[in-house]
Amino acid sequence: MIELWERFGYYGMQALIVYFMVQRMGFEDSRANLVWGAAAALIYVAPAIGGWIGDKVLGTKRCMVLGAMILSLGYALMAVPTTNTWFLFSALGVIVVGNGLFKPNTANLVRKIYEGDDSKIDSAFTMYYMAVNVGSTFSMLATPAIKDYFNAAHGNEIGWHVAYGVCSVGLVIGVLTLLMMRATIRHVGSLPDERPLDKGKLAMVLGGGVLAVGLSAVILQYQSIARVFVYLAGIVVLGIFVHLIRKSEPSERAGLIAALVLTLQTVFFFIFYQQMSTSLSLFALRNVDLEFNVLGAHLWTWSPAQFQALNAIWIMVLSPVLALVYTRAGRTGKDLSIAGKFALGFTVVAAGFFTYGFAGQFAVNGLTSSWIMIAGYGLYSLGELLVSGLGLAMVARYVPARMGGFMMGAYFVATGISQYLGGVVANYASVPQGMTDPLQTLPIYTSLFNKLGIAAVICTLIALSVLPLMRRLTATHSSHQ
Fold first, then answer.
1. Is the pLDDT of residue 408 over 60?
2. What's the CATH number for 2-479?
3. Helix or strand or coil: residue 132?
4. Which of 39, 213, 444, 463 has its CA 20 to 30 A from that of 298?
C-alpha cells in the first residue's frame, strides 16, 4: 500500500515533467529530454546508497518511512508557483534523496517476507509491480486533468503546481497508511530496525541528504557534469559487481554472475522504457489524435500526458494473469527461467515499437489513431512485466541475503544509467523549436521508433545467445542452495 501511494506521487510528477519544461519553462526538446534523463538516472542511482543505509545504518523500515516523508517535501516544493530553474532542480534533488531511501528498502522488505520460495518471490514481485501501477494509473490520469482544469480557470500557470501538490498529498496518505498497517510488517526488517534509533546516525544521514540535494541540482543544471556522473556510476557499479564476484564464496559466485548478466540486459530494457516519458510523450502531444472513436462514434478524449497511463493500465490487466501462470508453472516444474522470460520480453517490446513505427501508415494529416497507442503500449507493457517486473525477483533469487540491500541498490543504479541513455536516444527525435506541422514531426518520431524496434530485436538475439550460459549458472547456483 505504501508503494502504491509513493508511485502515485512519482508518476503523477513524471506524467507532467517533460511537458512542464517544454511548455511552461521554454526548454528545447533536447534539453528537456536530457534533464529528465539525468534526473531519472539520479533518482534510480540514489537507492544504491539508500539500500546500504537501510541494511547497516538506520534500518530498512525506518529508511522507508523517512524516504516517504522527504518525497512528500520534494513534491510540495514543486508545487511552489515559480519557473526558476535552480528551484526546480533543487526540488528534483529532494525527490532524488527521498527515493534513494525509500525505493530499495521497500523492495527489500518484500524479498524478506517471501525469502526461500522462488515461485512465490516471482509472484510476489509481480503483484508488487501491480501495486506500483495501480498508484501510477490514477495519478497519470489525474494530474494532467487537474493541470488542464486549473490552467483553464486561472491561466497557464497555477495548474502545473496544483498537480504537483496532489503528488505530495499522495505521499502523506502513504505514510498514514503505513502507520495504520505497521503491525503487518513487525516481523521483517534489517538488524538496525531491532535496535533503538541512533539519533547521531540519523543526523548524519540527513546532513548527507542536504549535500546530495545541492549536488543533484548542479548535475541537472550542467549536462556535461551529468554525463560524466552517470558514466562514472556505471563503471563503479560494474567494478563493485566484479569485486564481489571475485571475493564471494564459491557457492555464491554462480548466482552473482547470473545476476550481473541479467542486470546488463535490464540496462538495455530501460533505454526503451525511458521513451515513454520523453519521445513517446512528445509524440502524443504532436502526432496523436486525442479522441477515441469506434465506428465513427466518439467515446472520450484524453490529454496527451494521460497516454502514459496506458502502460500502467495494461500492467494491471496482465499482472494477475502472469502471477497465476508463474505459480502454476512452478508447481508443475514447467516455469520458464528468468533468462528465458527476459528474451521473450525483448521480443514483445520490439513488436510494440514497430507498432508505433508503423503509425505513420495510418495517420491522417499527420495525426495517428489513439488506438495505435493502446496497441503499442499493450505490447510494450507485456515486455516490461517479463523483464523489469522480474528484475527485482532476479536479485532476490540469485543474490545472497547479506548483500540484499546493496544489490537492490546496484540494480537501480543500472536502471538509472539506462534512463539517462534513454534521454540521449530520445534526442534523435528532437523537434526543432517552432516546428508545429504534424506532417513534418511525424517522420521524425516514426523513424526513431522503427530503429528502437530493430534494437529490441538485437537485444532478443543477445538474450537468446546467453541462455545456455544462464542455464549452467542457475544449475550451479541451485546445487549450492
1. yes
2. 1.20.1250.20
3. helix
4. 444
CB 2 within 8 A of CB 262: no
What's the rounded Cα separation, in Å, for the pair 203 and 314? 42
- Up-side HSE of residue 103: CA atoms within 13 Å toward CB? 30
Q: Using CA atoms in the order 355, 361, 365, 368, what is the torsion angle rounded to 10 degrees?
A: -20
Identify the weakest region by mean pLDDT among 30-44, 251-265, 431-445: 251-265
Nearest to residue 116, comparing CAs of 365, 400, 427, 420?
400
What is the residue type of 476?
Answer: T
Quote the CA–CA distance of 78 and 75 in Å, as a whole number.
Answer: 5
pLDDT in tens, 66-107: 999 999 999 999 999 888 999 999 999 999 999 999 987 887
Can you name the residues that pair with 291 across neighbouring β-strands?
301
Q: Using one digit for the tens of pLDDT, what is the confidence trace for 462-475? A: 888 877 776 776 66
Closest CA to 326 of 312, 340, 346: 340
90 and 42 Cβ atoms separated by less than 8 Å: no
Rama region for 283: left / alpha / beta (φ>0; ψ in -120 to 50; rest)? alpha
Residue 404 near residue 255, CB atoms below 8 Å: no
Neighbours of 201 (CB within 10 A): 15
**Alpha-carbon separation of residue 290 from 9, 331, 370, 388 (angstroms):** 25, 45, 6, 29
Domain ranges of the chain: 2-479
- pTM recorded for the entire structure: 0.84
Cell triple for residue 439? 506532417
With H, G, I as helix, E, B as strand and everything else as coil, classify residue 208. helix
Closest by CA position to 275, among listed 144, 425, 399, 109: 425
Cα 263 to Cα 335: distance, rounded to the nearest angstrom? 20
Enumerate the β-bridge partners of residue 298.
Answer: 293
Burial class (CB within 10 angstroms; exposed 0-12, middle 13-18, buried 19+) of 456 = buried
